[in-house]
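Objective 1b of the project was to move from sequence-level analysis to a structural picture of ligand recognition. The entry below was assembled by the postdoctoral researcher (A.K.) and checked by the PI before modelling. It contains the amino acid sequence of the target and the SMILES of the bound compound, zinc ion.
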Amino acid sequence: MQLQLPSKHDGFWQHVRRGTPNQCWPWVARFNHDGYGQFSERVRRGPKGQRTIRASRRAYELTHGKIPLGKEVMHDCDNPACCNPAHLLLGTHRDNILDAVRKGRHRVGGQRLTREDAVTIRDLCMRGSAQKDVARMFGIARSTVSHIVAYRRHPYGRHLCDAVAARLKQSQPSPAGVS
Ligand SMILES: [Zn+2]
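Corresponding predicted holo structure:
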């Protein structure tokens, strides 16, 4: 029997519910335990010719081109099932972790660090608190604090910086017990 490589585009996009250019385009086939779509394709004949990759990676490759070594596909919409190429961006693993911190998905010591926490952490450090002290207040690693503080160098950090700036402008007192 002749094995056929699936047509690059049809084999993939038939599993994506495509909407308008701005909507999320959810993957509607198989998912892994993290909620990311899984796409399997036959890359060569034989029992080991199948490879499975994240659907969002494949969506990125099909529309934006090859993913450079060491880069990850990030979701601007924070929806792991989404395959809308307009919602997919490249970043490093570190960017991805920082993005998760900013969006409150990152779990530290079993606790979720919210976006508001991240704003407060940056706020405190900008006002001169030592990173190790801030880390202790929140029960998180000092490296997490420095990640959050360093985040402004990344384009994603803009939102966070805006939030900090807005807060400083309001001159709200620091949360009780952390000033
Ligand atoms: Zn999306």
